[in-house]
Write the structure tokens for this entry.
Amino acid sequence: MKPIPLKDAVAMIPDGASLMIGGFMGVGTPGRVIDELLRQGKRGLTVIGNDTARPGIGIGKLISAKAVRKAVVSHIGLNPETQQQMLAGETEVDLVPQGTLIERIRAGGYGLGGILTPTGVGTVVEEGKQRLTVDGRDYLVETALRADFALVNCSLADYMGNLAYALTARNFNPVIAMATDTVIVEANHIVPVGVIPPDQVVTPAPLVDYLITND
Amino acid sequence: MDAQTIIARRIAQELRSGMLVNLGVGIPTLVANYVPAGMQIYFQSENGLIGTGPIPEQGMGHATLTDAAGQPVTALPGASTFDSAMSFGLIRGGHLDMTVLGGLQVDEQGRLANWMIPGKMVPGMGGAMDLVAGAKRVVVAMQHTAKGKPKIIKRCSLPLTSTRRVDLVVTELAVISFAEGRPTLLETAPGVSVNDVLTSTEASLVVPDHVPSMHL
């Protein structure tokens, strides 16, 4: 793990990069990284995350700034701007069932080509996908997802890069930290090694490439 | 009693002590207000919480303790939190005893459509498809009609949430079971006749000789 100032971390992300961003309706989303992406005027991003939050919150800020070319998410119902941009053809939105989305990301990080899920069988989600029958039950083949960067928010990071998460801010964060080429972490608190006991570490240090330093 | 209260109170009677239950947004959320006294129910919030409690008092919320809409909630004693992969493992893996979801349409085969109206409302399915595919019991909480038109119909015209048959539909007029495959009228709301239900329903219902009134 390498400590890095916020602006240098974000400068590594080129226009058009694919980003997995933690958070659920903005809770557990790395807010300083989002603001810096906007400040540096990034464009054409592919964003993979649970949702696009609300206007002015988390990923919603990237949507409002039209920095997103494509969003792969499960829910946009609480962000009318995403719906407007999708219907206007400005932003491509790939809607994926939430449980399928997180499993596709997990597969990407766990060395699997994809997963079999009963979710979506017989619905529009099945279009263009292979159906398999295993022990008499039908499943869809859903392929693994990976991205260039994971933008992770955690509650605690120690000096080595071990991470722990708070309550419902965990959500997609530990899963995306496995599924990208480069993992950038924004911690709410940076603490000495040992403050997070080994059995409370959720994301082990070797997974973390960069930890954003305090200003 | 208004329609929402009738629906929520009746669905609360389906709860059994020790159940793990997921409530969707809207009317389903109200079911939590009518848990019988002394009954232990584990409410799951799919953003990664079991033991979801009531909304905190003004100013007492915590930024990392939220429901699936991102709003502050409380956690009851015995609560636990986990990531989204486990949350949907609970849902798909047969660990969730019951889900209560809103509905736009339910058809004669018990298939639910509740996640989009093409060209009008495209919010995304969120967790709805996983919940219907995976929960042990699927209960639909919805108004019986929309703008005077039946919502329990021959065949869904809106995109399906799942092909899995729902178990129970509760409206302000009736309780309808799909347990036997075909929709069966189990109960009517107080003051509502069997004929009232039939005229508001497009799907053909099986009507037993005796249809009791809901006990609310």
In short: The first helix of chain A runs from residue 6 to 11. Chain A touches chain B through 49 residues (CB under 8 Å). Chain A has one domain: 2-113+146-212. Helices of chain A lie at 6-11, 31-39, 59-64, 80-87, 98-109, 173-176.
